[in-house]
Amino acid sequence: MELITASAIVSYTTKIEDDLAKFYDNLAKKYPEAKEVFLSFAKENRSNKTSVERTYYGIISDKLEACFVKTLNTDDYSINMELAENASYTDALKKALEVEEKTQRFLQDAAESTKALVPDVSWVLTRMGKKRGDRINKLKSLLEKAGR
Amino acid sequence: MIDVAILEEPIKEVLTIKNYINGEWVESESEKILDVVNPATQKVLAKVPVSTSRELDEAVKAAREAFERWRETPPLARARCLFRLKELLEEHFEELSRIQTMEHGKTIDESRGETRRGIENVEVATGIPSLMQGYLSEDIAVGMDEFAYRQPIGVFGIIAPFNFPFMVPLWFAPYAIATGNCIIIKPSSEVPISQSKLAELAEEAGIPPGVWNVINGGREVVSAMLEHPDIDGICFVGSTPTGRFIYKKCGETGKRVIAQCGAKNFLLVMPDAVLDRTIAACMTSFYGNTGQRCLSGANLVIVGEGLNEHEFNAFYDKVVKAFVEAASKIRVGYGLDERVQMGPLRDKEKKQRLVSYIEKGISEGAKLMLDGRNVKLIGDWPHDAFLNPTVFTEVTPDMFIGREELFGPVASIMRARNFDEAIEMIHSNPYGNASSIFTQSGKWAREFVYRVKTGGVGINVGIVAPMAFFPFPGKKQSFFGVLHGQRESIDFFTDRKVVIQRWF
To answer: Which of A6, B22, B73, B139 is the most exposed place for a label (fewest CB within 10 A)?
Structure first.
């Protein structure tokens, strides 16, 4: 599906953050090895959701033109967060890494697409995308440790 | 799999709209009831009464009585009511926005923008303790001081249009009540639901009975407002003929008036304009709110300043191509669908009027580059009120479509050989609400701001919508009165009293 309005981009972003929060809550329950890390990710996802919504609702006033953002397509970012019941800790980390890399790409593209018309939202998305980089590094390092 | 769905509708059953008089929700005595129809789905959302002049009179009596107490309420206490109202508006932000989309047709992004803009006026009005302060000069003569201060006036009528059902009354209402006046709002009977909801929240915010009243209706209520001796002023937003009539009538009856009216806004594209950003701004200017705003772009003037004929033709073609291409990509449908960039017109009669204007444009010799009569929608909705973006080229300022306000998603593209000719085109039009120039040249931008006779001026901005802390300007046939809406209305809603004192 195409995301061609600011509202759609914000909805899509908040749904990703919601789903990721649930995803990491589950991982925290299943894999005590990285419980604290997963819980901190989930907390950050919830905070990201609030941050995007608050920014959008706060600035929409001077951006009645916000409905003409550039087109993004959800097919390019579709994220499968399902994990097999018997997935190992390493499998879980690999899945998380895959999801985060895709999410980071979406956030970067969404930031670019909203830059001209809703720049405050764009700024928040950019910041979230950058922080995703830290998360990806963390997951890679956990994966490396798990592989030893 | 994550997907984006059509947002949930907040109105689930047909509502009965009541009047709000003296803090009570009162069913109208009128037998004339109109349907409020969702223009996208054509479903009836509410039943609204066409109230009588007697009901208006009742509201005026309540407001007049409430005024005596309300004016004595300290400005800080009045501001606290507005702070509470602001909080309630934030709490109900999404519901209010979706109601606007349902009753008017605009997209959800546009409705949220309207809600935010409305709230901003409440926010600005909360500053009333300092905004309405007076001033003093000591020793104007030996032992004598002089000071001026503001006093509220009484009761004001607010006559609202259909195109911004929630926001427009808030250009006036918060300032009127913050300064100690009482109000009677007459919403457009086409879109009365968000004003009903707003009054509910005003009640919940603790605004006392009689201070904020809503009377639904039509001409009879408006005429009664204009004639009523206990109404001190009128705020009106709507068409130029009605605004002119109201201005004249208020002159006869000694009422203050702000009448913000029709428009025909010109956007100039200079050869050095940044084209992609200009086109994006033009899309929202011409097609935002389905072209139903007094700040919408109407005429796009491509200016050949400094270009020879060959270069000018190439530039003209390039801008036209980019404009038509962008306009043809705009997705039209129900505004609660987040994939939609433009909603329907408010009703099928407005669509029919626009269709007749398109036919007139063709018969006058303008070239139809994009025909919005070929309706293409996202979703399976009745076509009744939908019109897709339309573009004419080779329009001249004397053609009907180049001269008159169309109030819909129809763009007229014109040529001007140079800057002076473009300015002349703007000045030859009777309206003067807003105009814009797209250029990277400070010289042309400055020249434009200096010379153009419109109230609002945009530099690389397609919609010159002033923030709440600026006046909403307008000139020529776009405005009748002296003071404008939003912050400037503090002067409108108050009288200055000048006191010279000495003590023996």
So the answer is: B139
